[in-house]
Amino acid sequence: MRAAVLHEIGKNELEVLDDVEAVGFGPGKVRLRIRATGLCHSDVSAMNGVLPQPAPFIPGHEGAGEVIDVGDGVTGLSAGDRVLVCWLPACGACPSCKRGQTQLCLAGFMNAGTPNFRRPGGDVFGFAGTGTFTEEVVVGAGCAVPIPDDVPFEIAALIGCGVTTGLGAAINTARVEAGSSVAVIGCGGVGISTVQGARVQGAAQIVAVDPVASRREAALRFGATEAVSPEEFADAKQRVTAGEGFDYVFEVVGKSATARTAYENTRRGGTLCIVGAGAMDDNFQVNMFELFFDEKRILPSMYGGGDVLRSYERAIALWRAGRIDLESMITHRVRLDDINDALDQMRTGTSLRTCVEL
Fold first, then answer.
1. What's the mean pLDDT in 133-158?
2. What is the value of pTM for the model shown?
3. Using the 8-state DSSP alphabet, how is residue 235 labeled?
4. Residue 114 near residue 107 (C-beta atoms within 8 A)
5. Are 230 and 213 spatial neighbours (Cβ–Cβ below 8 Å)?
6. 115: number of CA atoms within 13 Å, CB side?
């Protein structure tokens, strides 16, 4: 079986190999044939060590495909079913799940420490317990979510992570109000999804902030009312909000420096929503006086901040109704052999989302 493997954390390139085997199939598990997978910046963050991940590993967590086989005890799934990959499945029994905060369930993270691939040289892990840069993968049944027949695999793959994360940040976590002012810092796939979420919610002004001109141009096509470089952000704040600051600012980069910029551009009493996944040693700081005096809400958003199964259904409904554009988010399509070129395109901001077709 072919798969793209990172041998060592800190390396920039993957090696496409044909001697990888998907392992771990048994009770409660399903074997999937991956048909499409998106490249998410979290994959690069795992490769460079920003996000913790044992190596060697197969990146990829934003995928969709078909069920090949189901293990004993699996219900609701059968061979041939079309599914998307949920990298953070809910167990349904932990305190977070019982409170309705299924996006905070840790059961999925426990899978990340168990290898689900093997090569002649030893075990190989799948990123976040999945690993979709491969032809086949074995995952827990909760990771395989059935999708309707009218949803293409590449659209389902995006919904499996980036779209759900960005839409949910605006709709579930921040709960953007109609007529409000919004700024989105970082306009890759998740940031563009956040822009679309703010538009769906009825925001009056949506300012997209990104250093890459092509991403700024894309943000305008997806609903931003204007798009500026980081150097132009202060001027946009003055023009759009008369210097007061935005009602909502979304940080979709995952760095303390941009989080601080986001905080400073949020109005008093406004909402800063942290969407980007950052490093454990990168600390965001506010002083105790401003925290008290400005009364700005700081809201982290994990995987869209809500029940992911409901979020998948909502994304599909909005897509069907033409309220969000997912097809145009896929700016590049490649085969597995071109995975390193695709990663470079993402690092430089050339692509919004690249679909790897397997």
1. 97
2. 0.96
3. H
4. no
5. no
6. 16
